[in-house]
């Protein structure tokens, strides 16, 4: 039994690689099923966000190569192309990494809380798909507790810093006052909700929320005092949009160069500020080539985000101490859990030997053989089978003079 995690994130891979390796929500169920078909994989969870794709597994043997091969094959990439961006963690470092991820310490925005919700969603999907058992269940449940403790006991979340916040802050830096401007938000998920609320706090004039589900768009629009539109109306809404921020789970771009050029002509080339927070990207990269468009991706927000990190660095140090203690707690539980499994396996093996020997003795009874002879046969077979392994190890230890092993093997057989 061994813990393994492998993946890519914003620190190891650019957005064009991350979008190729991202799992769409409707892919996760089948992907987990395929992952579980790898013989060495006992349990698995897949986490896929705009900033990372990670696989967490409990395995019975070395399975890094098999999982890496499956991941690259699933996304139609060569192993060589993907391996250059991939990292791996084993056993205790898996625990530490997951606790850091859950607590927001491994995020682009230090301490951001959104990742915890994404992690819970990924875990729930894995549990529904029955790819989680006792080990990963315990590991992920503890990661949620650790994240809560970090947020409660430190100042890591004192300042509202997020990718959504950074996008709004950048728009304010570019335009100054937002009171006379209109924002077009594409999507209706948690990120867009955060963007809308931040825009409202900054005094934005008008917000339009466009989504594939008009019902979901209307629901969010009601909450943030906005207008709702279907995603098919994006080109016409673009004409009046000064700010466009997009974050959907679409596998194909929603906004292209042609539609944007048409909108710019009708706008008489008034500039549009765009932020694409999605992975895969919602806005074609060629849109950024247009003269009156200022297009940013999640990777471009780093400089904005950095300004808001300084106040969280001291809190992160305290969070690391909490995580180290919690890693030790989980490691001790895992050792106990693994020892219980080993003991159970040992007893099962002994029981199998007993039943085999008992079956042979009963067969002798059925053949009307002498009871004493049958019992002697049973005792001899049982003794030989039980001592076979220790005898081989004793011979090896005697040849090498390994006194510790000799004393240990002697202690297995009581003298009386």
Report on the architecture of this protein:
- This protein is of the alpha/beta class and 416 residues long.
- The protein folds into three domains: 2-159, 2-Layer Sandwich (Beta Polymerase, domain 2); 163-303, Rossmann fold, CATH 3.40.50.720; 340-412, no CATH class.
- It contains 16 helices and ten strands.
- The chain has helices at residues 15-21, 28-36, 64-74, 79-83, 92-102, 114-128, 134-153, 163-175, 190-201, 214-224, 234-237, 257-266, 302-306, 310-366, 371-400, 403-412, and strands at 2-9, 41-48, 52-59, 87-90, 182-186, 206-211, 227-230, 243-246, 272-276, 293-297.
- Strands 7-6-5-8-9-10 form a six-stranded parallel β-sheet, with helices on one face.
- Helix 6 runs antiparallel to helix 7.
- The model has no long low-confidence stretch (mean pLDDT 89).
CATH-defined topology of the largest domain: Beta Polymerase, domain 2
Main sheet overview: 6 strands, parallel
Strand order in space, largest sheet? 7-6-5-8-9-10
Whole-angstrom Rg: 30 Å
Helix content: 55-70%
Query: SSE string, helix = H, strand = E?
Result: EHHEEHHEHHHHEHEHEHEHEEHHHH
Defining key terms:
about 425 residues; alpha/beta; Beta Polymerase, domain 2; Rossmann fold; 3 domains; 6-stranded parallel sheet; 4-stranded antiparallel sheet; about 55% helix; elongated
List the helices and strands and how they pair.
Blueprint: E1 2-9, H1 15-21, H2 28-36, E2 41-48, E3 52-59, H3 64-74, H4 79-83, E4 87-90, H5 92-102, H6 114-128, H7 134-153, H8 163-175, E5 182-186, H9 190-201, E6 206-211, H10 214-224, E7 227-230, H11 234-237, E8 243-246, H12 257-266, E9 272-276, E10 293-297, H13 302-306, H14 310-366, H15 371-400, H16 403-412
Parallel strand pairs: 5-6, 5-8, 6-7, 8-9, 9-10
Antiparallel strand pairs: 1-3, 1-4, 2-3
Helix pairs in contact: 5-7, 5-14, 6-7, 7-14, 8-9, 14-15, 15-16
